[in-house]
Write a structure and sequence with these properties.
- The chain is α+β, with helices and mostly antiparallel strands and about 120 residues long.
- The protein has a domain of about 60 residues: Beta-lactamase Inhibitory Protein, Chain:B, domain 1.
- The protein is built from four helices and four strands, in the order αααββββα.
- A hairpin with a 2-residue loop joins strand 3 and strand 4.
- The longest helix has 17 residues.
- It starts with a helix and ends with a helix.
Length: about 120
């Protein structure tokens, strides 16, 4: 029995010399991760409706990439930014890569750059 184990140990490096063992996860799938995230965010945004509550949108969309709060005379505005398009391949998400969702007093009033510009 000891001879079989010894022979196997000696032959293993030769038998495995053509094999590639991947250690460290899905590093090759980096690009598909952000593409999937952007696609998922665009899908959710396409199903939004005016007057949805802040809580229901966050429950569907998840944590925003950026978050702003503005107090105006006509109400409290909260803006959530979700990444929807890549502009630079630097690995950093910026607001220009995001779509803003605009809430007034806890209710969705619009999304996109034009809705954000109105506040």
């Amino acid at each position: 029995m000891k001879h079989c184990v010894l022979i196997l140990a000696l032959l293993a490096p030769i038998a495995l010399s053509g094999c590639v063992i991947s250690v460290g996860g899905d590093e090759g799938n980096y690009s598909s991760d952000w593409e999937d995230r952007e696609f998922n965010n665009r899908q959710h945004i396409s199903k939004l409706q005016e007057d949805m509550s802040y809580e229901s949108v966050v429950q569907k969309m998840g944590v925003a990439d950026f978050n702003e709060l503005h107090q105006k005379e006509d109400g409290v505005y909260r803006i959530l930014f979700y990444r929807t398009q890549r502009t630079m391949d630097d690995g950093v998400t910026t607001k220009d890569e995001c779509t803003p969702l605009v809430f007034k007093n806890g209710s969705l009033v619009g999304w996109g750059d034009s809705a954000y510009a109105r506040i």
